[in-house]
Amino acid sequence: MATEKPESPDRLRVSRRALIATTTAGLAAATTGCGLDNSAARETPPSTATVGPYDTLREAIAALDARGRLVRIARVDQDAYEATALMYRLTERYSAEGAPAVLFDEVKIDGEWLQGPVVGNLLGHWDAEALVFGLEPDPAGGIATLRKARDYLMAMALENGGRFPEIAPVQVSREQALCKEVTLEGDAIDMTRFPFMQVNPADGGRYVNTASVFTKDPKMGINFGTYRCQLKGPRKIAVSPGEGQTGWRMLDNARNRGEQTAKVSLVIGQEPIVYLVSGSRAAGRAGNKPVDELAVAGGLRGRALAVVKSDSNDFLVPANSEMVIEGEIPLQISEAEGPYGEGLGYQGGGEMAWYMNVTRVTHRKNPWMHNSFTGVDRGPVSAAGLASALLFAQKFAPEVVDMYYRNRVVNVAYVSINKTKPGQGLAVGEKLGRFNPVTKVMIVVDADVDVMDISQVIAAVSSRWQPHPAMKVFESLPGLPLDPSQHTRSRTSKVIIDATRQFPEEGGPDSYPPTNRSLLTEGAPDAFARVDAKWADIIEGWESGVRQG
To answer: Which of 154, 212, 388, 394 is spaced 20 to 30 Å from 41 by Cα?
Structure first.
Protein backbone atom coordinates (compact mmCIF):
# COMPACT_ATOMS: atom_id res chain seq x y z
CA MET A 1 0.00 0.00 0.00
CA ALA A 2 1.40 3.37 -1.02
CA THR A 3 1.51 5.92 1.77
CA GLU A 4 0.60 9.59 1.66
CA LYS A 5 3.65 11.86 1.61
CA PRO A 6 3.70 15.53 2.61
CA GLU A 7 3.43 17.99 -0.23
CA SER A 8 6.80 19.17 -1.47
CA PRO A 9 7.24 22.90 -2.22
CA ASP A 10 8.97 22.02 -5.48
CA ARG A 11 6.28 19.55 -6.40
CA LEU A 12 5.57 21.26 -9.72
CA ARG A 13 8.92 22.85 -10.41
CA VAL A 14 10.08 22.04 -13.94
CA SER A 15 13.79 21.27 -14.16
CA ARG A 16 16.22 19.57 -16.51
CA ARG A 17 17.94 17.43 -13.92
CA ALA A 18 20.28 14.68 -14.97
CA LEU A 19 18.44 11.49 -15.86
CA ILE A 20 20.32 8.27 -15.18
CA ALA A 21 20.69 6.43 -18.49
CA THR A 22 20.68 2.74 -17.74
CA THR A 23 19.01 -0.30 -19.20
CA THR A 24 18.23 -1.98 -15.88
CA ALA A 25 18.09 0.43 -12.92
CA GLY A 26 15.83 3.46 -12.95
CA LEU A 27 15.96 6.75 -11.13
CA ALA A 28 16.52 6.65 -7.39
CA ALA A 29 12.99 7.95 -7.02
CA ALA A 30 11.59 4.99 -8.97
CA THR A 31 12.90 2.04 -6.98
CA THR A 32 9.80 0.63 -5.36
CA GLY A 33 8.76 -2.90 -6.29
CA CYS A 34 5.34 -3.72 -7.71
CA GLY A 35 5.49 -7.49 -7.46
CA LEU A 36 7.52 -10.57 -6.84
CA ASP A 37 11.11 -10.46 -8.06
CA ASN A 38 11.98 -13.86 -9.53
CA SER A 39 15.36 -13.10 -11.08
CA ALA A 40 18.71 -11.59 -10.24
CA ALA A 41 19.43 -8.10 -11.56
CA ARG A 42 21.10 -8.11 -14.95
CA GLU A 43 23.25 -5.00 -15.00
CA THR A 44 24.15 -3.48 -18.33
CA PRO A 45 26.60 -0.63 -18.94
CA PRO A 46 24.85 2.75 -19.15
CA SER A 47 23.96 3.91 -22.65
CA THR A 48 25.91 6.92 -23.86
CA ALA A 49 24.37 7.19 -27.32
CA THR A 50 21.93 10.03 -27.89
CA VAL A 51 21.08 8.87 -31.41
CA GLY A 52 19.02 5.71 -31.93
CA PRO A 53 17.80 3.29 -32.85
CA TYR A 54 17.16 2.55 -29.20
CA ASP A 55 16.71 -0.88 -27.67
CA THR A 56 14.66 0.30 -24.69
CA LEU A 57 12.28 3.04 -23.66
CA ARG A 58 14.81 4.15 -21.04
CA GLU A 59 17.54 4.69 -23.64
CA ALA A 60 15.20 6.94 -25.63
CA ILE A 61 14.30 8.98 -22.54
CA ALA A 62 17.97 9.35 -21.57
CA ALA A 63 18.80 10.53 -25.09
CA LEU A 64 16.08 13.19 -24.99
CA ASP A 65 17.33 14.34 -21.60
CA ALA A 66 20.92 14.57 -22.83
CA ARG A 67 19.72 16.86 -25.62
CA GLY A 68 17.62 19.10 -23.39
CA ARG A 69 14.34 17.69 -24.71
CA LEU A 70 13.05 16.41 -21.35
CA VAL A 71 11.68 18.13 -18.26
CA ARG A 72 11.21 16.28 -15.00
CA ILE A 73 8.57 16.80 -12.34
CA ALA A 74 9.07 15.31 -8.88
CA ARG A 75 5.39 14.80 -8.01
CA VAL A 76 2.18 15.51 -9.90
CA ASP A 77 -1.37 15.30 -8.54
CA GLN A 78 -3.43 13.63 -11.26
CA ASP A 79 -6.48 13.55 -9.03
CA ALA A 80 -6.43 17.29 -9.76
CA TYR A 81 -5.43 16.60 -13.42
CA GLU A 82 -2.19 18.56 -13.06
CA ALA A 83 -0.28 16.38 -15.56
CA THR A 84 -2.90 16.94 -18.26
CA ALA A 85 -3.10 20.69 -17.63
CA LEU A 86 0.71 20.94 -17.72
CA MET A 87 0.82 19.10 -21.07
CA TYR A 88 -1.75 21.53 -22.47
CA ARG A 89 0.30 24.49 -21.24
CA LEU A 90 3.50 23.15 -22.83
CA THR A 91 1.93 22.39 -26.21
CA GLU A 92 0.08 25.71 -26.25
CA ARG A 93 3.32 27.55 -25.49
CA TYR A 94 5.75 25.59 -27.67
CA SER A 95 3.38 23.82 -30.16
CA ALA A 96 2.70 20.10 -30.28
CA GLU A 97 5.96 19.56 -32.18
CA GLY A 98 8.07 21.87 -30.02
CA ALA A 99 7.08 20.77 -26.53
CA PRO A 100 9.49 18.60 -24.54
CA ALA A 101 8.93 15.13 -23.16
CA VAL A 102 7.85 15.23 -19.51
CA LEU A 103 8.78 12.69 -16.82
CA PHE A 104 6.89 12.38 -13.53
CA ASP A 105 8.65 10.62 -10.66
CA GLU A 106 5.45 10.08 -8.66
CA VAL A 107 1.79 10.43 -9.57
CA LYS A 108 -1.13 10.89 -7.18
CA ILE A 109 -4.01 8.65 -8.29
CA ASP A 110 -7.15 7.92 -6.25
CA GLY A 111 -5.62 9.58 -3.22
CA GLU A 112 -2.36 7.64 -3.21
CA TRP A 113 1.12 8.47 -4.48
CA LEU A 114 2.10 5.79 -6.99
CA GLN A 115 5.72 5.36 -7.91
CA GLY A 116 6.75 6.12 -11.48
CA PRO A 117 8.42 7.24 -13.43
CA VAL A 118 5.76 8.02 -16.05
CA VAL A 119 6.81 9.73 -19.27
CA GLY A 120 4.48 11.77 -21.47
CA ASN A 121 4.92 13.31 -24.92
CA LEU A 122 7.76 10.84 -25.49
CA LEU A 123 8.07 11.41 -29.25
CA GLY A 124 6.39 14.79 -29.58
CA HIS A 125 9.38 16.99 -30.34
CA TRP A 126 10.56 17.40 -33.94
CA ASP A 127 13.99 16.02 -33.01
CA ALA A 128 12.51 12.60 -32.22
CA GLU A 129 11.64 12.18 -35.91
CA ALA A 130 15.35 11.87 -36.70
CA LEU A 131 16.80 10.46 -33.48
CA VAL A 132 14.77 7.25 -33.41
CA PHE A 133 16.11 6.30 -36.86
CA GLY A 134 19.74 7.03 -36.01
CA LEU A 135 19.86 10.46 -37.66
CA GLU A 136 20.99 13.80 -36.28
CA PRO A 137 18.25 16.46 -36.39
CA ASP A 138 18.62 18.98 -39.18
CA PRO A 139 20.42 22.16 -38.00
CA ALA A 140 17.47 24.19 -39.27
CA GLY A 141 15.22 22.25 -36.88
CA GLY A 142 11.48 21.82 -37.09
CA ILE A 143 10.00 20.68 -40.37
CA ALA A 144 13.48 20.32 -41.90
CA THR A 145 14.16 17.49 -39.44
CA LEU A 146 10.88 15.80 -40.35
CA ARG A 147 11.71 16.11 -44.05
CA LYS A 148 15.18 14.66 -43.45
CA ALA A 149 13.72 11.62 -41.70
CA ARG A 150 10.97 11.20 -44.29
CA ASP A 151 13.42 11.37 -47.19
CA TYR A 152 15.72 8.87 -45.47
CA LEU A 153 12.83 6.42 -45.10
CA MET A 154 11.65 7.05 -48.67
CA ALA A 155 15.11 6.13 -49.96
CA MET A 156 15.13 3.03 -47.74
CA ALA A 157 11.78 1.88 -49.14
CA LEU A 158 12.64 2.66 -52.77
CA GLU A 159 15.82 0.59 -52.48
CA ASN A 160 13.57 -2.27 -51.34
CA GLY A 161 11.05 -2.13 -54.18
CA GLY A 162 8.81 0.49 -52.60
CA ARG A 163 8.29 -1.14 -49.19
CA PHE A 164 10.20 -0.88 -45.95
CA PRO A 165 12.71 -3.72 -45.58
CA GLU A 166 12.14 -6.50 -43.10
CA ILE A 167 14.65 -7.97 -40.68
CA ALA A 168 13.26 -10.99 -38.85
CA PRO A 169 13.22 -10.72 -35.05
CA VAL A 170 15.60 -12.81 -32.95
CA GLN A 171 14.08 -14.86 -30.15
CA VAL A 172 15.93 -14.77 -26.83
CA SER A 173 15.50 -16.90 -23.73
CA ARG A 174 13.32 -15.87 -20.82
CA GLU A 175 16.46 -15.30 -18.75
CA GLN A 176 17.75 -12.79 -21.31
CA ALA A 177 14.50 -10.79 -21.56
CA LEU A 178 14.33 -7.62 -19.48
CA CYS A 179 10.51 -7.77 -19.46
CA LYS A 180 10.70 -11.05 -17.48
CA GLU A 181 12.57 -9.76 -14.43
CA VAL A 182 9.43 -9.83 -12.26
CA THR A 183 6.48 -12.21 -12.59
CA LEU A 184 2.97 -11.71 -11.17
CA GLU A 185 0.13 -14.21 -11.29
CA GLY A 186 -3.09 -14.96 -9.45
CA ASP A 187 -3.94 -12.67 -6.54
CA ALA A 188 -0.53 -10.98 -6.79
CA ILE A 189 -1.79 -9.15 -9.91
CA ASP A 190 -3.26 -5.72 -9.23
CA MET A 191 -3.05 -3.43 -12.25
CA THR A 192 -4.42 -0.53 -10.20
CA ARG A 193 -1.10 -0.38 -8.33
CA PHE A 194 0.67 0.85 -11.46
CA PRO A 195 0.39 4.56 -12.38
CA PHE A 196 -2.00 4.28 -15.31
CA MET A 197 -3.76 7.65 -15.52
CA GLN A 198 -7.19 9.02 -16.12
CA VAL A 199 -6.20 11.82 -18.49
CA ASN A 200 -9.43 13.83 -18.47
CA PRO A 201 -12.14 14.10 -15.80
CA ALA A 202 -14.74 13.27 -18.48
CA ASP A 203 -13.03 9.98 -19.41
CA GLY A 204 -14.61 6.72 -18.30
CA GLY A 205 -11.68 5.94 -16.01
CA ARG A 206 -7.99 5.15 -16.03
CA TYR A 207 -6.50 3.93 -19.30
CA VAL A 208 -3.63 1.79 -20.50
CA ASN A 209 -3.30 3.92 -23.63
CA THR A 210 0.11 3.14 -25.15
CA ALA A 211 0.03 -0.67 -25.14
CA SER A 212 0.69 -2.72 -28.26
CA VAL A 213 -2.20 -5.21 -28.30
CA PHE A 214 -1.18 -8.52 -29.91
CA THR A 215 -3.94 -10.49 -31.67
CA LYS A 216 -3.98 -13.14 -34.42
CA ASP A 217 -6.14 -14.52 -37.20
CA PRO A 218 -5.76 -17.66 -39.36
CA LYS A 219 -5.72 -15.61 -42.58
CA MET A 220 -4.42 -12.22 -41.51
CA GLY A 221 -1.63 -13.56 -39.33
CA ILE A 222 -0.38 -11.71 -36.23
CA ASN A 223 -1.09 -8.05 -35.61
CA PHE A 224 -0.24 -5.56 -32.92
CA GLY A 225 -1.90 -2.16 -32.66
CA THR A 226 -2.22 0.66 -30.14
CA TYR A 227 -5.83 0.70 -28.98
CA ARG A 228 -7.60 2.29 -26.08
CA CYS A 229 -7.71 -0.08 -23.08
CA GLN A 230 -9.67 0.98 -20.01
CA LEU A 231 -8.54 -0.28 -16.62
CA LYS A 232 -11.67 -1.92 -15.21
CA GLY A 233 -10.25 -3.57 -12.11
CA PRO A 234 -7.20 -5.26 -10.60
CA ARG A 235 -7.28 -8.06 -13.21
CA LYS A 236 -9.67 -6.74 -15.86
CA ILE A 237 -8.91 -4.46 -18.83
CA ALA A 238 -11.32 -3.39 -21.58
CA VAL A 239 -9.87 -3.79 -25.08
CA SER A 240 -11.43 -1.50 -27.68
CA PRO A 241 -9.66 -1.53 -31.06
CA GLY A 242 -12.44 0.40 -32.80
CA GLU A 243 -14.58 -0.99 -35.58
CA GLY A 244 -12.63 -1.52 -38.80
CA GLN A 245 -9.22 -1.72 -37.16
CA THR A 246 -7.23 -4.90 -37.76
CA GLY A 247 -7.46 -5.98 -34.12
CA TRP A 248 -11.23 -5.49 -34.16
CA ARG A 249 -11.61 -7.55 -37.34
CA MET A 250 -9.49 -10.38 -35.91
CA LEU A 251 -11.52 -10.57 -32.70
CA ASP A 252 -14.82 -10.24 -34.57
CA ASN A 253 -13.83 -13.02 -36.98
CA ALA A 254 -13.02 -15.30 -34.04
CA ARG A 255 -16.35 -14.49 -32.40
CA ASN A 256 -18.22 -15.20 -35.65
CA ARG A 257 -16.44 -18.55 -35.93
CA GLY A 258 -17.96 -19.44 -32.59
CA GLU A 259 -14.74 -19.32 -30.61
CA GLN A 260 -15.25 -18.63 -26.92
CA THR A 261 -11.97 -16.97 -25.96
CA ALA A 262 -8.99 -15.26 -27.59
CA LYS A 263 -5.58 -15.04 -26.00
CA VAL A 264 -3.90 -11.62 -26.12
CA SER A 265 -0.74 -9.93 -24.91
CA LEU A 266 -0.41 -6.21 -24.15
CA VAL A 267 3.09 -4.76 -24.34
CA ILE A 268 3.89 -1.51 -22.51
CA GLY A 269 7.05 0.58 -22.59
CA GLN A 270 8.16 -0.48 -26.07
CA GLU A 271 11.15 1.08 -27.77
CA PRO A 272 10.07 3.93 -30.08
CA ILE A 273 10.08 2.16 -33.47
CA VAL A 274 7.91 -0.70 -32.22
CA TYR A 275 5.57 1.97 -30.81
CA LEU A 276 5.36 3.82 -34.15
CA VAL A 277 4.65 0.58 -36.08
CA SER A 278 1.99 -0.24 -33.48
CA GLY A 279 0.32 3.16 -33.79
CA SER A 280 0.42 3.66 -37.57
CA ARG A 281 0.03 1.89 -40.90
CA ALA A 282 3.74 2.19 -41.65
CA ALA A 283 4.03 -1.59 -42.09
CA GLY A 284 1.32 -1.67 -44.76
CA ARG A 285 0.11 -4.93 -46.27
CA ALA A 286 1.19 -6.82 -49.38
CA GLY A 287 -2.28 -7.51 -50.73
CA ASN A 288 -3.90 -10.18 -48.55
CA LYS A 289 -0.57 -11.58 -47.47
CA PRO A 290 0.17 -11.20 -43.72
CA VAL A 291 2.96 -8.81 -42.82
CA ASP A 292 5.41 -9.51 -40.01
CA GLU A 293 5.24 -6.16 -38.23
CA LEU A 294 8.06 -7.13 -35.86
CA ALA A 295 10.23 -7.70 -38.93
CA VAL A 296 9.20 -4.30 -40.32
CA ALA A 297 10.25 -2.74 -37.00
CA GLY A 298 13.58 -4.51 -37.38
CA GLY A 299 13.97 -3.16 -40.91
CA LEU A 300 13.28 0.39 -39.76
CA ARG A 301 15.74 -0.09 -36.90
CA GLY A 302 18.40 -1.50 -39.21
CA ARG A 303 18.88 -4.47 -36.89
CA ALA A 304 16.79 -7.33 -35.57
CA LEU A 305 14.44 -6.81 -32.66
CA ALA A 306 14.92 -9.10 -29.67
CA VAL A 307 11.68 -10.95 -28.86
CA VAL A 308 10.61 -13.46 -26.23
CA LYS A 309 7.66 -15.83 -26.05
CA SER A 310 4.76 -14.78 -23.85
CA ASP A 311 4.37 -17.08 -20.84
CA SER A 312 0.75 -18.11 -21.42
CA ASN A 313 0.34 -17.85 -25.20
CA ASP A 314 2.39 -18.12 -28.38
CA PHE A 315 2.90 -14.41 -29.09
CA LEU A 316 6.49 -13.29 -29.49
CA VAL A 317 6.80 -9.86 -27.89
CA PRO A 318 9.62 -7.27 -27.66
CA ALA A 319 11.95 -8.66 -25.02
CA ASN A 320 13.25 -5.31 -23.74
CA SER A 321 9.86 -3.75 -23.06
CA GLU A 322 8.88 -2.55 -19.60
CA MET A 323 5.82 -4.78 -19.12
CA VAL A 324 3.80 -7.57 -20.74
CA ILE A 325 0.19 -8.17 -19.68
CA GLU A 326 -1.26 -11.53 -20.74
CA GLY A 327 -4.81 -12.77 -20.60
CA GLU A 328 -7.93 -14.03 -22.34
CA ILE A 329 -10.84 -12.20 -23.95
CA PRO A 330 -14.31 -13.80 -23.57
CA LEU A 331 -15.39 -13.28 -27.18
CA GLN A 332 -19.12 -13.75 -26.73
CA ILE A 333 -19.35 -11.08 -24.00
CA SER A 334 -19.01 -7.32 -24.24
CA GLU A 335 -19.57 -4.43 -21.86
CA ALA A 336 -19.52 -0.64 -21.84
CA GLU A 337 -16.18 1.16 -22.18
CA GLY A 338 -15.37 4.86 -22.31
CA PRO A 339 -15.96 7.67 -23.02
CA TYR A 340 -12.41 8.70 -23.87
CA GLY A 341 -10.72 11.87 -25.19
CA GLU A 342 -9.61 11.01 -28.74
CA GLY A 343 -6.73 12.13 -30.96
CA LEU A 344 -8.56 14.90 -32.82
CA GLY A 345 -9.05 16.66 -29.50
CA TYR A 346 -12.71 15.74 -28.88
CA GLN A 347 -14.40 13.35 -26.49
CA GLY A 348 -15.07 9.96 -28.06
CA GLY A 349 -18.29 8.36 -26.88
CA GLY A 350 -18.58 5.21 -24.86
CA GLU A 351 -19.10 1.96 -26.72
CA MET A 352 -19.47 -1.75 -26.22
CA ALA A 353 -16.09 -3.43 -26.15
CA TRP A 354 -14.34 -6.67 -25.38
CA TYR A 355 -12.45 -7.06 -22.13
CA MET A 356 -9.57 -9.26 -21.07
CA ASN A 357 -9.14 -11.21 -17.87
CA VAL A 358 -5.51 -10.69 -16.88
CA THR A 359 -3.84 -13.98 -15.97
CA ARG A 360 -0.15 -13.11 -15.90
CA VAL A 361 2.03 -10.00 -15.79
CA THR A 362 5.77 -9.82 -16.28
CA HIS A 363 7.80 -6.62 -16.08
CA ARG A 364 11.19 -5.06 -15.53
CA LYS A 365 12.14 -4.18 -11.99
CA ASN A 366 10.54 -0.85 -11.12
CA PRO A 367 8.86 -0.55 -14.54
CA TRP A 368 8.75 2.78 -16.32
CA MET A 369 5.39 3.75 -17.76
CA HIS A 370 4.55 5.65 -20.95
CA ASN A 371 1.29 7.63 -20.99
CA SER A 372 -0.29 9.30 -23.99
CA PHE A 373 -2.08 12.60 -23.40
CA THR A 374 -4.29 11.77 -26.35
CA GLY A 375 -5.48 14.80 -28.27
CA VAL A 376 -2.92 17.00 -26.50
CA ASP A 377 0.50 15.59 -27.37
CA ARG A 378 1.58 14.63 -30.90
CA GLY A 379 1.76 10.87 -30.54
CA PRO A 380 4.21 8.61 -32.42
CA VAL A 381 6.73 10.01 -34.89
CA SER A 382 5.17 10.56 -38.31
CA ALA A 383 8.05 10.26 -40.82
CA ALA A 384 7.43 6.57 -41.57
CA GLY A 385 3.70 7.07 -42.11
CA LEU A 386 4.33 10.08 -44.34
CA ALA A 387 6.84 8.11 -46.39
CA SER A 388 4.34 5.26 -46.85
CA ALA A 389 1.55 7.68 -47.80
CA LEU A 390 3.71 9.44 -50.40
CA LEU A 391 4.88 6.16 -51.94
CA PHE A 392 1.26 5.00 -52.13
CA ALA A 393 0.15 8.29 -53.71
CA GLN A 394 2.91 8.22 -56.32
CA LYS A 395 2.05 4.64 -57.21
CA PHE A 396 -1.48 5.62 -58.22
CA ALA A 397 -0.69 9.13 -59.46
CA PRO A 398 2.91 9.45 -60.76
CA GLU A 399 2.56 13.23 -61.13
CA VAL A 400 2.47 13.59 -57.32
CA VAL A 401 5.58 15.39 -56.03
CA ASP A 402 4.93 15.55 -52.30
CA MET A 403 2.25 14.88 -49.68
CA TYR A 404 1.83 15.98 -46.09
CA TYR A 405 -0.58 15.84 -43.16
CA ARG A 406 -0.13 16.65 -39.48
CA ASN A 407 -0.42 14.00 -36.77
CA ARG A 408 -3.29 15.71 -35.00
CA VAL A 409 -5.09 16.74 -38.22
CA VAL A 410 -4.72 13.54 -40.22
CA ASN A 411 -7.96 14.01 -42.19
CA VAL A 412 -6.64 17.12 -43.96
CA ALA A 413 -3.96 16.39 -46.57
CA TYR A 414 -1.86 18.59 -48.85
CA VAL A 415 -0.57 17.23 -52.17
CA SER A 416 1.70 18.89 -54.75
CA ILE A 417 1.80 17.77 -58.38
CA ASN A 418 3.60 18.45 -61.63
CA LYS A 419 0.62 19.81 -63.49
CA THR A 420 0.71 19.42 -67.28
CA LYS A 421 -2.93 19.51 -68.41
CA PRO A 422 -6.35 20.90 -67.50
CA GLY A 423 -8.37 18.99 -64.91
CA GLN A 424 -5.33 17.24 -63.52
CA GLY A 425 -5.54 18.74 -60.04
CA LEU A 426 -9.10 17.62 -59.38
CA ALA A 427 -8.44 14.23 -60.98
CA VAL A 428 -5.46 13.50 -58.73
CA GLY A 429 -7.28 14.76 -55.65
CA GLU A 430 -10.33 12.61 -56.41
CA LYS A 431 -8.22 9.50 -57.03
CA LEU A 432 -6.33 9.87 -53.75
CA GLY A 433 -9.39 10.96 -51.80
CA ARG A 434 -11.33 7.88 -52.83
CA PHE A 435 -8.46 5.54 -51.94
CA ASN A 436 -7.64 7.21 -48.62
CA PRO A 437 -10.26 6.37 -45.97
CA VAL A 438 -8.96 9.04 -43.60
CA THR A 439 -8.69 12.25 -45.63
CA LYS A 440 -11.81 14.40 -45.91
CA VAL A 441 -10.12 17.58 -47.19
CA MET A 442 -7.59 17.19 -50.00
CA ILE A 443 -5.81 20.37 -51.11
CA VAL A 444 -3.84 20.00 -54.36
CA VAL A 445 -1.15 22.58 -55.20
CA ASP A 446 1.58 23.11 -57.80
CA ALA A 447 5.06 21.62 -57.44
CA ASP A 448 6.56 24.99 -56.46
CA VAL A 449 4.54 25.00 -53.22
CA ASP A 450 6.12 23.33 -50.19
CA VAL A 451 3.29 21.24 -48.71
CA MET A 452 5.09 21.05 -45.36
CA ASP A 453 4.86 24.84 -45.09
CA ILE A 454 1.20 25.46 -44.28
CA SER A 455 1.58 29.19 -44.93
CA GLN A 456 2.59 28.41 -48.54
CA VAL A 457 -0.41 26.10 -48.95
CA ILE A 458 -2.80 28.76 -47.65
CA ALA A 459 -1.16 31.35 -49.89
CA ALA A 460 -1.79 29.08 -52.89
CA VAL A 461 -5.44 28.70 -51.90
CA SER A 462 -5.66 32.47 -51.53
CA SER A 463 -4.06 33.37 -54.87
CA ARG A 464 -4.57 30.39 -57.22
CA TRP A 465 -7.94 28.94 -56.28
CA GLN A 466 -11.51 29.80 -57.21
CA PRO A 467 -14.23 27.83 -55.40
CA HIS A 468 -15.96 27.44 -58.76
CA PRO A 469 -15.06 25.40 -60.68
CA ALA A 470 -11.89 24.21 -58.90
CA MET A 471 -13.64 22.21 -56.18
CA LYS A 472 -15.46 18.90 -56.02
CA VAL A 473 -17.59 17.54 -53.16
CA PHE A 474 -18.50 13.92 -52.47
CA GLU A 475 -21.50 13.31 -50.26
CA SER A 476 -20.62 9.97 -48.66
CA LEU A 477 -17.32 8.08 -48.62
CA PRO A 478 -15.41 6.09 -45.99
CA GLY A 479 -13.98 8.40 -43.32
CA LEU A 480 -12.02 8.55 -40.09
CA PRO A 481 -14.21 6.94 -37.37
CA LEU A 482 -12.95 9.39 -34.73
CA ASP A 483 -14.13 12.49 -36.61
CA PRO A 484 -16.80 14.03 -34.33
CA SER A 485 -18.41 15.95 -37.21
CA GLN A 486 -19.77 12.80 -38.88
CA HIS A 487 -23.49 12.13 -38.84
CA THR A 488 -22.91 8.42 -39.51
CA ARG A 489 -19.78 6.96 -37.99
CA SER A 490 -17.05 6.10 -40.51
CA ARG A 491 -18.92 7.90 -43.33
CA THR A 492 -17.98 11.42 -44.38
CA SER A 493 -18.43 13.92 -47.14
CA LYS A 494 -15.17 14.93 -48.81
CA VAL A 495 -13.93 17.96 -50.66
CA ILE A 496 -11.15 18.26 -53.22
CA ILE A 497 -9.70 21.77 -53.51
CA ASP A 498 -7.64 22.32 -56.64
CA ALA A 499 -5.34 25.19 -55.67
CA THR A 500 -3.07 24.71 -58.66
CA ARG A 501 -2.76 27.48 -61.25
CA GLN A 502 -5.90 27.09 -63.33
CA PHE A 503 -5.49 26.87 -67.10
CA PRO A 504 -7.88 28.95 -69.23
CA GLU A 505 -9.69 25.72 -70.18
CA GLU A 506 -10.49 25.27 -66.47
CA GLY A 507 -11.86 28.77 -66.08
CA GLY A 508 -8.58 30.35 -65.04
CA PRO A 509 -7.07 33.64 -66.28
CA ASP A 510 -5.35 33.85 -69.63
CA SER A 511 -2.01 33.95 -67.81
CA TYR A 512 -0.60 34.08 -64.30
CA PRO A 513 1.95 36.74 -63.39
CA PRO A 514 5.33 35.44 -62.18
CA THR A 515 5.97 35.32 -58.44
CA ASN A 516 8.15 37.94 -56.81
CA ARG A 517 10.63 35.27 -55.74
CA SER A 518 11.00 33.87 -59.24
CA LEU A 519 11.65 37.39 -60.55
CA LEU A 520 14.39 37.85 -57.94
CA THR A 521 16.00 34.54 -58.91
CA GLU A 522 15.84 35.44 -62.58
CA GLY A 523 17.05 39.00 -62.24
CA ALA A 524 19.72 38.42 -59.56
CA PRO A 525 20.69 34.75 -59.91
CA ASP A 526 23.54 34.91 -57.40
CA ALA A 527 21.69 36.84 -54.67
CA PHE A 528 20.86 33.85 -52.49
CA ALA A 529 24.33 32.33 -52.79
CA ARG A 530 25.91 35.67 -51.80
CA VAL A 531 23.65 36.03 -48.75
CA ASP A 532 24.23 32.41 -47.68
CA ALA A 533 28.00 32.87 -47.90
CA LYS A 534 28.10 36.22 -46.07
CA TRP A 535 25.53 35.71 -43.31
CA ALA A 536 25.02 31.98 -42.78
CA ASP A 537 25.64 32.42 -39.03
CA ILE A 538 22.78 34.89 -38.72
CA ILE A 539 20.45 32.88 -40.95
CA GLU A 540 21.05 29.66 -39.04
CA GLY A 541 21.91 30.93 -35.57
CA TRP A 542 19.98 34.07 -34.75
CA GLU A 543 17.85 32.25 -32.15
CA SER A 544 21.05 31.20 -30.37
CA GLY A 545 22.16 34.77 -29.87
CA VAL A 546 24.04 35.47 -33.14
CA ARG A 547 23.19 39.05 -34.07
CA GLN A 548 26.25 40.65 -35.67
CA GLY A 549 26.79 40.68 -39.43
So the answer is: 212
